[in-house]
Amino acid sequence: MGKRNWKHLVTSDRKRAMFAVAASFAAAAGALTLAPASAQAETTGDHCVYNVTRDELTCSDTPEAALAADSVGIQATSTLVRLYDDANYGTANGTFTLTVDGSYTCTAAYSPIEFNVVNLSAAGWSNRASSAHTYHSCDVKLFDASTTTGTSSTWIDNLANLNTAAGGWANRAGSFQVS
Ligand SMILES: [Ca+2]
User: Which contiguous run of DSSP H or E holds residue 114?
Assistant: First the structure.
């Protein structure tokens, strides 16, 4: 297992656009931000956790190990979204999990957008998700292109086969919104 600072995955110009949070959460995130973890060896694990609070990607060989590595030294993290390479929430070929430090619950409404993950390709996850699960009252909206542009899906809570979402969304998403 290991951690990679997200900024290492993109150029500095793009990093600014990599991830944008709603202003209200940005303030909270600032208060929660911890000192960056010391650098560790990069890994090639198929299961990656992207921690919004720390802007950090942690990969390992299982979803559980990646989550455990992400939460080292943290009292609690909240899992908001998990994307699966396979349909039916299968974990054989990889997962991408979005977390925040601390306890977080999404608002009941779809507005405002609470999180944007704008470049899945930076984590090797463009055109890859085939099922999706959300937690803590969050829902996810997928976008064809990066930077939450292009055609978008409906809001998705849990969906075992993203191809059943209107338009067909398996192996298609390049970015997503969370609310
Ligand atoms: Ca897939």
Answer: none
